[in-house]
Amino acid sequence: MAHEHENPHAHSHAHPHDDGTARSGPVADASVRVARETDAPAVGLVQAEVWRSAYAAVLPADVVAAFEPQAFAKAWRASLASPPEGVYRLLAACAGEQVVGFAAVGPSQDPDASPLTGELSAIGVHPQARRAGHGSRLLNAAVDTLRGAGADTLHAWLLASDEGTRAFLVHAGLAPDGAWRDRVVSPDGTTAREVRLVAAIGGPLDEPATTDRAAAPGTAQPPGA
């Protein structure tokens, strides 16, 4: 199913993937919590890092270089200060007190989605905090959040070329449903093909591997920004 081109600031994508490679040593006080407005700078930093990596092979270098932490942080701060209507949540993965990852969820905006469909609109873990299970914890927390709000289906969009993310999500219980779209991802009109993965979340998803090297493709701002 094809979708028409869209502004990249209207929506985001999932991109966690675990590879089963254990990181030496324990992760101190690893947790996931609802993000606060004061977390915006840390979330913006993580988003800029992972977006640059994810789109390095998709966009021109000057466009990738323009993914600045301050711009992402400003958008998240505004969204957290004045949340849009509906069940939109920004989750923060922490190692101790340090925010090292994030996930954003909300109602699906897909035209064919039911009112009970939630969406994982963004997820990412800082490169220096990968392979420590943060991506898996974020995904589980995202599903729990949507399920608690009454959702029975999960949608997630990702770059068609992103085999690592696809493997992670498929391992966690999602599957491609054949939907795809070409999204405008730069000011000059460059597009990127995305595919959709879905899962029923009335029951628990399969447990992903406990390590991760998460990233998040896309140039999106927070939902409703």
Write the layout of secondary structure elements.
Layout: E1 30-34, H1 40-55, H2 61-65, H3 69-81, E2 89-95, E3 98-107, E4 117-125, H4 134-148, E5 153-159, H5 163-171, E6 175-184, E7 191-200
Parallel strand pairs: 4-5
Antiparallel strand pairs: 1-2, 2-3, 3-4, 5-7, 6-7
Considering the chains and any ligands shown, give keywords for the structure.
225 residues; alpha+beta; 7 strands; 26% strand; globular; disordered N terminus
Report what the structure shows.
The chain is of the alpha+beta class and 225 residues long. It is built from 5 helices and 7 strands. α1 (40-55) crosses α3 (69-81). The longest helix has 16 residues, at 40-55. The chain starts with 29 loop residues before the first strand and ends in a 25-residue tail after the last strand. Residues 1-15, 17-26 and 208-225 have low confidence and may be disordered.
Q: What are the secondary-structure elements, in order, as H or E?
A: EHHHEEEHEHEE
Distance between the termini: 27 Å
Q: How much beta, percentage-wise? A: 25-35%
Average pLDDT = 81
Spans of at least 5 consecutive residues whose pLDDT stays below 50 are 1-15, 17-26, 208-225
Shape: globular
Tally of extended strands?
7
